[in-house]
Amino acid sequence: MEKLLNRAKDIKIIFFDIDDTLRVKDTGYMPASIPQVFAALREKGILTGIATGRNLFGVVPEIRALNPDFFVTANGAYVADGKGQIIYDKPLPETVVTNLVTWLERSDVDHVFYGSDAVVASKWTDLMSDAITPVYGKLSVDPDFYQTHAVYQMLTLSEQDDQLVLPDNLAKQVRMVRWHQHSSDIVPMTGSKAEGVRRVLEQLRLSVDNVMNFGDELNDVELFDLGGLSVAMKVSHPKIMKMADYITDTVENDGIEKALKALNIL
């Protein structure tokens, strides 16, 4: 613990996942301690950021109201500061999106497109509703969205999602990351929250030793690998629990506040 406390002294910026980290995904519950934490960090001169698989459309009002300094969204593909200035903007190549749509349609797999500030479904089904509604509510439907908008990542929706295998022509360019029993993120091969956070650190001229990350799911793996201090929530995926420097309590039990106090950051 002494080593962790020494490392915590170097923290200058903290990134937070949203779902089951800042708020409960299924209910939207966010404890009163969260706004207090952000205000206290601001008073201490510690910067804050959101690092999420959601895009800006999915950053709900109560999270925006925390006034974080940075938004790393769409698993690192779209990064902006708190004033809306874009730091990093890397949509999937148009040919890759077209090939993904062709493969998914041939495989009879429904899908979701992530624009910079829109989330659109190819079709709205009960399976789609079960996975997506707790995160985004009901989505608009436009199977041709990708033809007129930049796409930063996609989601698969299938009863056999765990059996989907990318064809060879796509497997070299994108990868799938499970986040739900019926759905996976499709992100660039080199894309991750870590890439987005790295861009913020470069702009601030900070090192990885200056960053702390809170997360719970597999799309936090690269972020936890990046360096700095990593804190997993009590409900985290087992792989994330093993990677974490520190494991804290659940959202409902003020896990973030407890961790920051235990590490003498607050």
From TrEMBL:
InterPro entries: Cof, HAD-like_sf, HAD-SF_hydro_IIB, HAD_sf
Coiled-coil region(s): none
GO cellular component: cytosol
Keyword Transport attributed: no
GO molecular function: isomerase activity; magnesium ion binding; phosphatase activity
Pfam families (alphabetical): Hydrolase_3 (PF08282)
Signal peptide (UniProt feature, chain positions): none
Keywords, ordered alphabetically: Hydrolase, Isomerase
Gene3D superfamilies hit by this protein: 3.30.1240.10, HAD superfamily/HAD-like
Record-given protein name: Hydrolase
Annotated source species: Pseudolactococcus chungangensis CAU 28 = DSM 22330
Lineage: Bacteria, Bacillati, Bacillota, Bacilli, Lactobacillales
